Amino acid sequence: MQFPQYGIYARWPEDGQGWIHPDDLSVVSRLLPSERVIRRESFDGTHYHCRYGAWKFRLRPALWLPVQAEGLDVGDEVETVGLGMERDLFVGEVVGMYYVRRKGRIAYRLRKASQNMPRLFLREHLRLLSEKQQVRQGEIEHPTPTWDGSGERIGFAD
Asked: Where is this region: Disordered (predicted)?
């Protein structure tokens, strides 16, 4: 098994609360069931160790819907990528990840300063702040200048 794994617990199991670690019942009852994308970090043989932002909890194996990770997680700092003049650019924090079943995608809730943004964003509208842009190698050979002026000169075609 490879971790982390992402998915949703859309339904509460019929067996009651036995699948939740007793110490984590209050946290899990606030988060699940829902369309929130939960991150499984490890499995200790009995419980999956899960996380959603700052909340950590343990769950026994139960039916869940796996979701393809997109490289973002709750708590990541991102910047929005504008589409023409359509959207204001800003830097924010991912405070929610929700699986939209009809689109088969994750939608992200952002917080700008201390205010949650009213709309959700898709991955292609966001750039992780740790992703640095790379400058590609130039294609034009430039002569190396010398101090005495004896370097090569660029000839221009008339």
From this structure: 134-158
Q: In what order do the strands lie in the sheet with 55-59?
A: 55-59, 48-52, 38-43, 5-8, 65-66
pLDDT in tens, 64-81: 999 999 999 999 999 988
Nearest-angstrom CA–CA distance, 53 and 56: 8
Domain boundaries defined on the chain: 5-66, 77-128
Q: 77-128: what CATH class?
A: mainly beta
Could you tell me which of 124, 80, 88 has the C-alpha nearest to residue 105? Answer: 124
Give the span between the Cα atoms of 2 and 150, in whole angstroms.
Answer: 61
Structure tokens at 124: 């292609």
Q: Count of CB atoms within 10 A of residue 34's CB?
A: 14
The half-sphere exposure of 102 on its side-chain side, counting CA atoms within 13 A, is 0
For the entire predicted model, the pTM comes to: 0.77
At residue 87, the pLDDT reads 66
DSSP structure string for 20-42: B-GGGHHHHHHH-SSSB-EEEEE
